[in-house]
Every structure is written in C-alpha cells, then in structure tokens.
Design goal:
The chain has 153 residues and is of the alpha/beta class. Helix content is 48%, strand content 12%. It is built from five helices and four strands, in the order αβαββαβαα. Helix 2 links the parallel strand 1 and strand 2. Helix 3 packs parallel to helix 5. The protein is globular and about 45 Å long.
Length: 153
C-alpha cells in the first residue's frame, strides 16, 4: 500500500519504486477497454516523444490500431529505435493551447494522454513553477475537456 509522503525526496523515491508500475497498470486497463471496441477506432496519443507515449504508440501498432502521436516538437524527436512509432503519423501539439487541443483531437475516438512535464528537479526551479503548472494542470484539463466535448473514450 502506498503511504502519503511529505518531502520531495520521498516523492521521488516513491515514484521510482511504484510510479512505473502504476502508470502501466492504468495503461493496460485503458488498452483492455479499447480492445473491447472495434479495431478501427482512431487513437490520439499525447507525449509520444517521452518514454510512456513512445511505448503506448508501439503497443497500439502491435494491436492493429490506427494511432497518431503528438508532442510539442515540430517532428517526432523521441527515441530513435526504429520501432513503429518513429514512422507513425505525428502532429505538433501544445496541450496548453485550448483551441489547438480541440482542433487536434476532433477526429479521434480514443485519446491517451501521456504528455507531462516530468523533469522533477527542474520543475522545482522558481522560474519553471508556472510553466510546469500550465503543462501538467492546465494542459491536462484541456485534454479532459476536449475528450468530453467529442465523447472520446
């Protein structure tokens, strides 16, 4: 059982011990839900330049889904391991831009949100706090509202 942590160092340790398992457990649950649908569902994934988004795209490819990845960069700049994600459709997207998010997700059935500011040490710098909050809170809110607007899974 996870216990409540009070210091940043304790949170970092907790995340390194349990975070990956939790993330992949949630992801596996989401993918099982998608599997109950039709394989022709169009899937949009945010944060594909990061490890989680990269792995999600490759898993969707293995399962036969049509998926489009997105991130803040102009082109895919994630891990260049020659896996399917490196050549799958990609859209530049700033998740903090509400209008851009609504436009980007409008033609998809399923949205998997993997984008986040994950550099924990830099996130604590005084000059980054507002940017981190904008990406992790406001950006996620934009994705959630867009999903609701289009009745995405």
């Amino acid at each position: 059982m996870l216990r409540r942590l009070t210091t940043t160092q304790q949170m970092k340790n907790q995340t390194s011990q349990y975070g990956g398992y939790l993330i992949f457990a949630v992801l596996a649950s989401q993918l099982r839900q998608i599997d109950y649908g039709e394989n022709n569902m169009k899937v949009f994934v945010t944060g594909v330049n990061g490890q989680l988004g990269h792995d999600v795209m490759n898993e969707l490819y293995k399962r036969g889904y049509e998926a489009t990845g997105s991130d803040i960069a102009d082109t895919y700049v994630g891990i260049n391991d020659f896996s399917p994600v490196t050549t799958m459709p990609y859209v530049k997207l700033d998740i903090t831009d509400t209008e851009e998010v609504n436009k980007a997700v409008s033609n998809f059935d399923v949205i998997i949100h993997c984008a986040a500011w994950t550099a924990v040490d830099m996130a604590e710098d005084d000059d980054k706090v507002e940017l981190v909050r904008n990406v992790n809170a406001h950006g996620t809110e934009n994705i959630a509202k867009a999903c609701k607007n289009i009745d995405a899974k």
